[in-house]
Amino acid sequence: MTTLKDIAKHANVSVATVSKYLSLDLAVKKETEARIQAAIKELGYVPNVVAKALKRKETFNVAVIVPKINNLYYSEITSGISQTLGKQHYNLFIYEVDQLNLDEGEILQLMRENMIAGIIFIGLFSDESFKESIRAAVEWEIPVVYANRYISFDGFPLLYPDLVQASKLGTAYLASKGRRRIALVHKRLPDRLLELFAKGYRQAIEEDGEPLLVAIEEGMELSESVIPALAENRIDGVFVLNELSAVYLAKALTKANIRIPEDMAVLSLGNSLISQISTPELTCIDLQNRELGIRSAEIILSQIRKQAFKPVTVLEPSIVERGSV
Amino acid sequence: MTTLKDIAKHANVSVATVSKYLSLDLAVKKETEARIQAAIKELGYVPNVVAKALKRKETFNVAVIVPKINNLYYSEITSGISQTLGKQHYNLFIYEVDQLNLDEGEILQLMRENMIAGIIFIGLFSDESFKESIRAAVEWEIPVVYANRYISFDGFPLLYPDLVQASKLGTAYLASKGRRRIALVHKRLPDRLLELFAKGYRQAIEEDGEPLLVAIEEGMELSESVIPALAENRIDGVFVLNELSAVYLAKALTKANIRIPEDMAVLSLGNSLISQISTPELTCIDLQNRELGIRSAEIILSQIRKQAFKPVTVLEPSIVERGSV
DNA sequence: TTGTATGCGTTATCAA
DNA sequence: TTGATAACGCATACAA
Lengths: 325, 325
What we know:
Two copies of one chain form a homodimer. In chain A, 47% of the residues lie in helices and 17% in strands. Chain A is an alpha/beta fold. In chain A, strand 3 (118-122), helix 8 (129-139) and strand 4 (144-147) form a beta-alpha-beta unit. Chains A and B meet through helix 4, helix 5, strand 2, helix 7 and helix 13 of A and helix 4, helix 5, strand 2, helix 7 and helix 13 of B. Chain B binds a DNA duplex through helix 2 and helix 4. Chains A, B: This is LacI family transcriptional regulator. Chains A, B: Keywords: DNA-binding, Transcription, Transcription regulation. Chains A, B: InterPro entries: HTH_LacI, LacI/GalR-like_sensor, Lambda_DNA-bd_dom_sf, Peripla_BP_I. Chains A, B: Residues 2-56 form the HTH lacI-type domain.
């Protein structure tokens, strides 16, 4: 392993000179520069980031804490993060919490041990314990970002899509296609979030009225069981607040000879590959997952660099038409 | 930040004693132990892994080099890796090469800079440049594993599914369901791999004969264009060697009023979510992606620990029946 | 423009 | 059973 010391000796200068030259905070004579560069080339010098981190008390490693990575929602966000971090020469650690089942204390310990420069928490919004993790990290002054769904702001930057707007957009779109009785189908969402969707619904529908909320479980059979409720209420358009559930519901509807979109319009929340390959392909609200990741990374980097950053970032959803509405 | 020094002072012992005690290579007196433990608790000591790495010249960080992470094939493997590494208290770095477009030199530099303990290369089998990356890493004595498809062994451990067996299994299954004229549909596979599938086909079909090989592009329209060729050859069963292509072909067949499986059996290679949510759901050959990841991680750890490891690991595929054959 | 010296937090060698 | 001390590779305060 070639070190600065070797370079210094080979170039007949001091270690400090080489170090400062490489850190760009020292202008050296043309001739010295040439000798240093020659030494670096000849000896094949590669800087040791670990030593640098120890000295500087700061790494270039950012951790992503995610429930699981083999899921298009999470991996899309993560890919966005990776893209931004890579450009800025930061490394990306991944910790899958579902797999490793780490508690808050263990996560914090891991971060501190490894001198993680910043942490991006994705998801886990149904679990309250993650909030403790974040709080603990904040307490130790580790830059933190939370990206997923709206949660109450609590002293760390938040990023999430505008679900009210998503709901409004979706509902209005269904209405514009002549749908008069629209249901919001959800997969066990917390009330806090359901209320956001209901709000968007109300904004889109001029007449007073509340949406029909239908809870659904994932899977073919479970989706079938929800069809009678839709029929009873003479629903002609569903906005399914979970992409996979939307696909299964579409399957169940087709199986029950309910045509999409003629008899029932199906709108899905989320625009991953699965809406595309569903039969029929599903019109959906795109929540901008990759962008969510990109922006999360930007904010964590701003924090690390002690620059200003927005405490709350709300992403604007958009609609992707595919004919299921 | 609390350091060993602080602990030592607080417990009235030397730094060396604390260090060795914590590394489990020193038995100390019960009383000393109690004092050390008390100090650790009181001061909230967290070991500094970075300093440890510098001293030991070895990190606990493993890098995964992957084309992209937002793809179920890659993320499933990665999740398997994450699972195994996590249990062994190793950290996982992710580098998305498609995103960052790093060349071989840059990858190696990154690995050396960060003192990466081992590298797992996934995929990129169509690209020859990755082989240079691997070779460079091997040259620098960094433990390496390659996981994806069969490539010629070249001095580093390989992991891949048994594609001949997969093809044999699939073909035999199609035949067992009464299919007499079977085509292998592939998405621009290199000849090297096509030959493996042809071999498996031959092993399954007793009579002499070669499979009809049909090249296909991904996407609905492109899949449609392949249907005439299937009709001309009176094909009654297709084994599609790419999961996404299988889904699109199934769509195209349905649209062309060709019933699955009555008129055409469709078998897919790969068992991610998309085969499950396709309409109809696709019977497939499971290539054991998660297991591939788990085993890759095990082998990289063996290398890191200077233990014996298998140079080649071949995974046995299995069939998952869903009624499309 | 360059060099000397110290220390980041840990492990490891040697001695006690 | 314990301690003193020298590295690991680098950055930086201070000198020259």
